[in-house]
User: Fold this.
Amino acid sequence: MKRSATILLVEDESALLTGIADLLQLAGLPYEIRVLTAANGQAGLRLMQEETPDLIISDIMMPRMDGYEFLAEVRRRPSWVHIPFIFLTAKAKRDDLLQGRRMGAELYITKPFATAELLELVESQL
Assistant:
């Protein structure tokens, strides 16, 4: 029987949110994947109050609370510090990558992304 894993996916573009959620659930990873979805960092934090995910994948440029603010809030909570955090973003400048890493993101993937690469990195973090 496969181990289960919960992934929180935070993305403001609804088509991309749905597409990535479907990809993660249907990819054939060695986990039974459940995906929680949120359209911005505030919604992501609300979901995390109810359930702690095993992995977070977040965009950076979002309304209300961007990915950097969201990551900062996640890292402020001792019970959430251990959760691997992947930025999946169109912000491709070296400074953006460095800022994400300095703030505690484990990985940084730029859009457009290779499906196989995303799945490999997700598996490595779970």
About this structure: The first strand starts at residue 3 and ends at 10. Residues 1 and 32 are 9 Å apart (CA to CA). The radius of gyration is 13 Å. The chain has a mean pLDDT of 93.
